[in-house]
Hints:
The complex is a heterodimer of chains A (246) and B (435).
Chain A: H1 2-22, H2 36-39, E1 56-57, E2 60-61, H3 83-86, H4 89-96, H5 108-120, H6 129-142, H7 144-147, H8 175-178, H9 184-193, H10 207-220, H11 233-244
Antiparallel strand pairs in A: 1-2
Chain B: H1 2-33, H2 44-58, H3 76-82, H4 91-100, H5 102-107, H6 111-119, H7 133-144, H8 159-170, H9 174-205, H10 220-244, H11 261-267, H12 272-275, H13 290-297, H14 308-318, E1 320-321, E2 326-327, H15 350-356, H16 361-365, H17 382-391, H18 406-414, H19 430-433
Antiparallel strand pairs in B: 1-2
Amino acid sequence: MKEKYFYIVGAFTTILLIIFLIIPRDKRSPGWDYMPDMRYSKAYETFSSVDFFYQKENGKYDTMSARLPVLGTIPRGYIPENIEDKTDEGFLRSFCFKNEHQGYNQDSAFQNKYMEAGEVLKNPFKPTDDILAEGKELYLINCKVCHGIKGEGNGQIVELPDGSDGPYTARPPAYTSRLPTLKDGQMFFSVSFGKNTMGGYAPMLTPAERWKVILYIKDLAGLKEGVTPATDTTAKKDIVAAVVKP
Amino acid sequence: MTNFLRSITKPTFHVNRLLSLVSLTILLNLFAFSAYSQAANVDMVKWKAGKAAFKNNCASCHNPLVKGTGPALAGALDRWTAEGKHQGIDGKTWLYRWIKNNNEVRAAGNPRGLKIFGEYAGVAMNVFPALTDADIEAILLYSDNSAMNTEAKVEPTAGASGTTGTETDSAFPTWILVVILALLICMVFTLNRLSGSLYRLTKESQGESVHAFVPFYKNKRIIILFGILVTVFFFYLLIQNATALGRQQGYQPVQPIKFSHALHAGKHQMDCQYCHSSASKSKHANIPSVSTCMNCHKVVQKGPVYGTEEIAKIYKYADYNIDTKTYGSNPKAIEWTRIHNLPDHVFFSHAQHVKAGGVKCQTCHGPVQEMEEVYQYAPLSMGWCINCHRQTEVNFDGNKYYSIYEKYHKAKAEGKMKGVTVEDIGGTECQKCHY
Lengths: 246, 435
């Protein structure tokens, strides 16, 4: 009788072992947890879907945890410690310069805004070595893909290394051909909200980063002049006040 | 004999030649019928010049066959000439003027020019005063015959598949070894049994007393040995599985779009931070918004593996109409499944590692540029974190972030320390990650 139990226990252990060995971990599932309440956040995580904001408006289901900031929120880097020294009107405006065209369509309102940007916005940075190095770093990440290392419009998705055409057929013009006709503000507008087939880079680059990239691009095209920041200190405080007010 | 052979082969040769000629003519006819791709009567020198000029001047807004920022250019000359004369000037001249300076043509009140301007929501074309008539002629020739392939491209030979083939050939298949081993064990048992029986038979025939036969599965020593082995193995597996519980190494969920990192980051060498741009600015390496996809896929409408199927999903999320080139008012975020999940009680900042530390993405995420479908490469366990913090030397030179560690800078300058690891600057303290 005792022997019988021994065999039963032995068989059971063997079956367990076989189960452990045979059943592989399902790669499509995250698996089990010891303490899920410690692992998974009670607070809403950045890129998650939550029910709290669930709303159905005009057939839109919005459950994204990432919300627009509260009205009147000041973006990071908007007001440097010392306004008088470090910034100017054109730079401050680049934070609150909105793209007012319908959707993403580039209609005449978009063109007007583009022309206005050329008049209003000014680059707060000067092309020092540090700034150009930062601009280059950002350029290689964000722009090189299409515009090429030297800005000739032969990026890796436009022209493959063997010289044949890449998947991106809208070859951008070389910087040397188009850039001299543009104002800094227009470049800023194009980088922010896109132009023709180019998309907007406002989600990826902060205004300061966009200005640095613009300096690097101008350096690539051999343009050195035209980076004189405005020095009018009276106007900038009004703008700060206007933007901070919700 | 040879004559006989010749008499057979000769006519068949002729038939072959005839067949090839017929098929060639059929092919040529097909080419001629398919719009704007006829191979005949095209000046190749001019075509190449046109291609170059097209790339430099027109390609950013126009595609010969697809509507871009401006209209598709194939057949532009036909369309302008079909419009007929305006103010006594024929369509071709108007087109040439339009390409050089479209503002003038619109000012002159050309109906076709005004119509195109209206169709494209008043977006004016750039002016190209530098283009000569010969350039324009070449550009139009190229755009009418763009589909033509001039340079015969050499197809890459299947080198990669060949190497894998030889690898498997050289290795001796393991299953054969297993079968041989099993056979040998069987033989040992049968021979043992046989020799035992023979031994007992001889003893019995000599009249000596013999122990009763005990089969191996009733042999106590063997049972105990087997029991110990099974227990040890069981506990080994238990510990293995228990530590793996809660870790998600190898996790490879199904994503809503079959996005290939191997194609984007590998073949086209796009920087990781092009899409995951906040990795250097924030705790999170962001999941790109649909607008980031649209930066390229406004133009790239067909993928190499799934064709238009997967890219059409982006358009659906972005609410983009590919025919009219307009966006709707109901875009939707793509619900990607997150792969790398650190527990809530651990703090991790991408910005700290990417910007201050200068750690390569691949250190933790593995060779993503080779992954067709991304999986979790590292275990993301605490031991794994700590191990890296102990081994990795901080880039002290020329990195302003670490300038406050004056003691270590001094020690390094005096030669007392070779390198400063993350552990030295407090990288293994509990509160760094758990608070």
